[in-house]
User: Which sequence fits this backbone?
């Protein structure tokens, strides 16, 4: 009986964590999109090196969060799991690299 109760608690915790993760990723996607929309129309701002780096950073994070949400719908036994994880990790590594470039600029 205790094993079953623990399993139910773990499953309920996973559901809460998955829901919270999806909600927070969606909020991140919305604000990244809003940031991009506010920067993109102004050619005067896009000419600056820091703004160009920030646009690339926003793009990497935007695609990374979308890929992370899509990856959450796959199972561990899926053939798309390993390439998906590699792509998501690469996108977030790129975001870190752009952040370092922005801090140096």
Assistant:
């Amino acid at each position: 009986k205790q094993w079953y109760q623990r399993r139910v608690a773990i499953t309920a915790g996973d559901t809460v964590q998955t829901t919270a993760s999806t909600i927070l990723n969606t909020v991140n996607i919305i604000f990244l999109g809003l940031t991009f929309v506010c920067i993109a129309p102004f050619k005067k701002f896009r000419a600056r090196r820091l703004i160009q780096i920030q646009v690339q950073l926003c793009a990497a994070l935007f695609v990374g969060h979308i890929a992370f949400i899509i990856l959450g719908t796959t199972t561990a036994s899926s053939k798309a799991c390993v390439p998906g994880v590699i792509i998501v990790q690469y996108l977030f590594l790129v975001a870190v690299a752009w952040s370092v470039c922005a801090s140096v600029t």
